[in-house]
Amino acid sequence: MILAEVTYVPIGLGTSASRYINAALEEFKRYGIKFYPNSMGTVLEAGTLDEIFEAVKRGERAILSMGIKRVETYVKIDDRIDVENTAERKIKALKY
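^ that's the sequence the OP posted. Answer follows.
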């Protein structure tokens, strides 16, 4: 399992990004990828890098289709093969 965190920064139409991010999240639902939104980005969970990149691409296209002329997209990937790499496992390992 591969984890990735994606952050989209729509540029040019105000300071609130929530409606644009919601469009990307809806696209993740349609694509069928597991995702976990948080206040600074969204964690994606998939079996392959191709699935991760396809989801990122679909999310970006959803934002651009709303009239945004520019979007910066940041992706961080955690590809770990020695244990089951899931968001749930990583959170359970935290002590807070």
